[in-house]
Design goal:
The protein contains 10 helices and 6 strands. It is an alpha/beta fold. It is globular, with a radius of gyration of 21 Å. It starts with 5 loop residues before the first helix and ends with a helix.
């Protein structure tokens, strides 16, 4: 075995074993506990409100490109988009999706088409459902504000990576009286969403969205394994800090193996 990689390999094996265990448990009906996330539960309420009012749902799956540091957040937003699109298809509710990155556009379009196809509503897909608005930050924000105001959207969902435009988007949604659900892992923008939105997914809650909404055994198993991995990392950090305080380097030496 390569020197310096033994501990890494051990953690990989333990993580893989934990994930497989929880996947098998979930497949037999013994689903690991996943705490309630109000922001995700509210998606059905938001789509239902739009259906009752006969007005669109507006969805933005982040603003950055899919090959940047914020890709994981955008992918999380796109995964939740699939769930929202299925609901709008089921209830014959209008859907609008605003895209800021050219390489996200075809992915979002394919997700919406597949969601409508799975609901038997492929004929309801319209070209204007998914729109590429602008790659420039504030031009994109202005385009989103225009859609929200001109179409009088009933519900708005912002999930993905957002930057300085987050307050503009959240405030614009509030001004048209829309139910707003937002989520991002960019800590500097979370306070703006908390202040202006009805429901906010904070940090890693957006990454749990796909598993939480789909209840897919494989995703639930991975989610449980990740939580155990984080717990193990926290224990190692705390123990290592205590040992280092008393002059012991045993933990550091072990991690270097």
């Amino acid at each position: 075995m390569v020197a310096g990689k033994q501990t890494t390999f051990l953690f990989f094996v333990l993580f893989l074993a934990t994930a497989i265990y929880y996947m098998r448990q979930a497949k037999t009906g013994k689903t690991p506990f996943v705490r309630r996330i109000p922001g995700l539960d509210a998606i059905e309420e938001a789509v239902g409100r739009a259906t009752e009012l006969g007005r669109p749902v507006f969805y933005v799956p982040g603003r950055t490109e899919i090959n940047t540091a914020g890709a994981a957040q955008n992918i999380a937003g796109l995964e939740i988009l699939g769930h929202v699109a299925k609901m709008t298809a089921r209830y014959d509710t209008e859907l609008r999706v605003g895209i800021a990155a050219a390489n996200v556009y075809p992915v979002a379009e394919a997700i919406v088409q597949q969601s409508y196809l799975e609901e038997g509503k492929a004929d309801r897909v319209k070209p204007e459902m998914v729109q590429f608005l602008s790659a420039e930050q504030f031009a994109f924000a202005a385009a989103c504000l225009s859609i929200m105001n001109t179409e009088k959207v009933a519900s708005v969902v912002f999930i993905g990576e957002f930057q300085a435009e987050s307050m503009m988007l959240a405030e614009g949604a509030a001004q048209v009286g829309a139910v707003t659900i937002a989520g991002t892992a960019r800590t500097a923008q979370i306070p703006f969403f908390v202040a202006a939105c009805d429901y906010t997914l904070i940090g890693e809650e957006i990454f749990a969205g796909g598993a939480y909404l789909s209840r897919d055994p494989i995703k639930i198993g991975n989610l449980a394994a990740q939580d155990w991995g984080k717990l193990a990392a926290m224990v190692i950090i705390i123990l290592g800090s205590i040992m280092a305080t008393f002059g012991s380097t045993a933990m550091v030496d072990w991690l270097k193996k």
